[in-house]
Write a structure and sequence with these properties.
- With about 290 residues, the chain is an alpha/beta fold.
- Helix content is about 40%, strand content about 20%.
- A seven-stranded parallel β-sheet has the order 9-8-7-12-10-13-11. A four-stranded mixed β-sheet has the order 1-6-4-5. Strands 2-3 form a two-stranded antiparallel ribbon.
- Strand 7, helix 8 and strand 8 form a beta-alpha-beta unit.
- The relative contact order is 0.13.
Length: about 290
């Protein structure tokens, strides 16, 4: 049975449209503790997500065509208690941050968690974004962490806004999959993780230690947190000094370097593989 569509879509002058449009600005996102999720993948994840305060999806703006095409998502949104607004292309253009929003735009509650709750969960693999300023990179690293089976992502107070529309899009739904703590000073992040038994690895192209050598030495099977720095200038010396090891990804070919997201994927997967090997902190030993 299809989702009923009202005869008249929401007006472009509606206060609901104006409120959603304001979320393009970080100060309004922070004040309202709400953000925009665009496209079927992100909206589906938002409709299914439940945070500490309940359902994450608050409102859904959908064109009639998109509502018919993605009827299951609209039904999931209604089941989550979200208010569904049928909208013209003009309204979608007003509330969307992309040229082609695919007909679905959701308004969501913030879903970051506290750093303390990350530590209490006993994390085995964590990505720490210490000085990442590009929102697309932040979202992509979050996606990599999710794919590698990380337990959490931490964005320090020197990093980009987690809820920047580009970050949300680049995460491709992974934002809704794993705990993310934001605004944590890098020193506090390192101290807390180390006290929880997590080894701190700073990823840096000029690192003294080689990732291959770390793997060969068998030092990566325990809980670890990778600290990733700025896209252009890496990690400052004071942040490198906080780590237990500063590790470089070896370049075996002629490439000058790896971009942030690629290096993060290599590092996180290296830890994930080592942790799942015999003797690793995630390995399963038959009883």
């Amino acid at each position: 049975m299809g989702t009923p569509v009202p005869a008249e879509p929401i007006s472009p002058r509606s206060p609901r449209v104006a409120a959603a449009r304001r979320l393009a600005r970080r100060n309004f996102r922070t004040k309202e503790r709400r953000f925009i999720a665009e496209g079927p993948q992100a909206v589906r994840e938002a409709a299914e997500h439940r945070g500490e305060a309940g359902a994450t999806l608050i409102e859904l703006f959908a064109t009639v065509e998109a509502a018919e095409r993605y009827a299951d998502i609209v039904e999931a949104a209604l089941a989550a208690g979200a208010r569904v607004h049928y909208a013209s292309d003009e309204v979608l253009a007003e509330v969307s941050q992309t040229v082609t929003p695919q007909g679905l735009v959701g308004v969501c509650h913030f879903l970051d968690t506290s750093f303390e709750s990350v530590l209490k969960a006993g994390p085995k693999l964590v990505a720490v974004l210490a000085h990442v300023r590009d929102p697309g990179n932040a979202g992509t690293v979050l996606r990599c962490a999710d794919a590698a089976g990380a337990d959490a992502v931490i964005l320090t107070d020197a990093s980009v806004d987690l809820y920047n529309p580009k970050s949300v899009r680049a995460s491709v739904g992974s934002l809704f999959h794993l705990p993310v703590a934001v605004g944590v000073p890098v020193e506090q992040a390192v101290e807390g993780l180390r006290a929880a038994g997590v080894r701190i690895l700073a990823a840096d192209g000029a690192g003294e230690d080689d990732l291959d050598a770390e793997l060969d030495a068998g030092t990566m099977g325990g809980p670890s947190a990778w600290v990733f720095g700025n896209e252009a200038w890496g990690l400052p010396e004071e942040t490198r000094a906080l780590a237990d090891a500063v590790v470089r990804v070896p370049i075996h070919g002629k490439a000058e370097s790896l971009n942030l997201a690629t290096a993060a994927a290599v590092c996180l997967y290296a830890s994930a593989r080592a942790q799942r090997a015999p003797g690793g902190c995630r390995s399963v030993t038959p009883s």
